[in-house]
Design goal:
About 45% of the residues lie in helices and about 15% in strands. By secondary structure, it is α+β, with helices and mostly antiparallel strands.
């Protein structure tokens, strides 16, 4: 059973704290109270509250617009803009608007503000320029290409067969004695090393068996690791290319899909009309509730943000 929401005190904006330099609104002091009856005698009470945003925001009046969102006319917005840091001044009551409607559904203003700030490209600091983002993707693809090239070269090297003789040691010094014999004469003992024989020197030369230049097991592991690394780098480059291609559109999709999930989970229904108003504020783009619904369902269906 869905919890029952009862608003005991409507939202009142008590005061606005602003920055010292540009008088940008940074904090808003609110007062409200609502109860959530979850059944079985369990009633939770919530009260407001301090809203806070961190500069820089693209909209200088973002906090004022957020508080007055959906209220007809400009009177509420003007009154909020005139508020100062003193909490004893006459408060601004929000009887209508998006925040009042969401409060009736159990979504507090602080929760809605955090949602908008965390998911809105319009209120976030701008990322690196397009040229820098493209350079990152190009570097990843280039490294992946080098990994594949190295792996292929190692494969070709390992196809070379070097005859490896297991026969007796041959003389290596100008004195006609092998290195082993020279060391033995000095009291140093060692086993006779195997000799590389590239061509038989006589009909009675020992039989040789071909071996690759590098250790087979270790080299095979190295080749596999290079191929795996190349695949991972290509995957990361693809994700970056998709996200960097149109970052603002990607942020819009995230906003719509996350709002759908949040409101449906908390209220049992997607709140498209309120979501469209918040979308307009965050992205500075007019969108009707019907268009917001259509684009949201399209994004979910095509899994654009998954």
């Amino acid at each position: 059973m869905r919890p029952r929401i009862t608003v005991r005190t409507l939202i009142r904006v008590l005061a606005i704290e602003r920055g010292e330099n540009d008088q940008r609104a940074l904090r808003a002091h609110l007062k409200y109270r609502y109860d959530i009856d979850r059944g079985g005698g369990i009633v939770e009470t919530y009260t407001g509250g301090l809203l806070e945003v961190s500069p820089p925001l693209e909209d200088v009046y973002f906090l004022e617009h957020f508080l007055a969102l959906g209220i007809p006319g400009t009177s509420a917005f003007d009154e909020i803009c005139r508020l100062g840091p003193n909490t004893r001044q006459r408060p601004v009551k929000l009887e209508t608007g998006v925040l009042a409607e969401l409060l009736a559904e159990g979504l507090a203003p602080s929760e809605v503000l955090v949602f908008c700030v965390n998911r809105g490209a319009a209120v976030q600091p701008k990322g690196p320029p397009l040229s820098e983002r493209q350079a990152r993707t190009k570097q990843l693809r280039s490294t992946a290409k080098n990994c594949r090239k190295t792996a292929e070269q190692l494969k070709q090297i390992q196809q070379i067969s070097i005859p490896f003789s297991t026969g007796p040691e041959m003389a290596e010094s100008e004195l006609g004695r092998s290195i082993t014999e020279k060391l033995a004469s000095g009291g140093i003992k060692r086993s006779a090393p195997r000799k590389l024989v590239f061509a038989p020197t006589s009909a009675n030369a020992p039989v040789s068996r071909p071996l690759p230049p590098l250790p087979p097991v270790a080299t095979a592991g190295l080749i596999k690791g290079l191929v795996t690394s190349a695949e991972r780098l290509d995957g990361v480059a693809q994700e970056l290319r998709r996200a960097f291609k149109r970052p603002r559109d990607y942020a819009k999709s995230v906003f719509r899909c996350d709002w759908y999930e949040l409101t449906k989970d908390r209220t049992g229904k997607p709140l498209y009309r309120q979501g469209a108003k918040l979308y307009e504020l965050v992205f500075q783009e007019v969108m009707s509730a019907a268009s917001f619904r259509v684009t949201t369902l399209r994004d979910i269906r095509t899994n654009r943000v998954g």
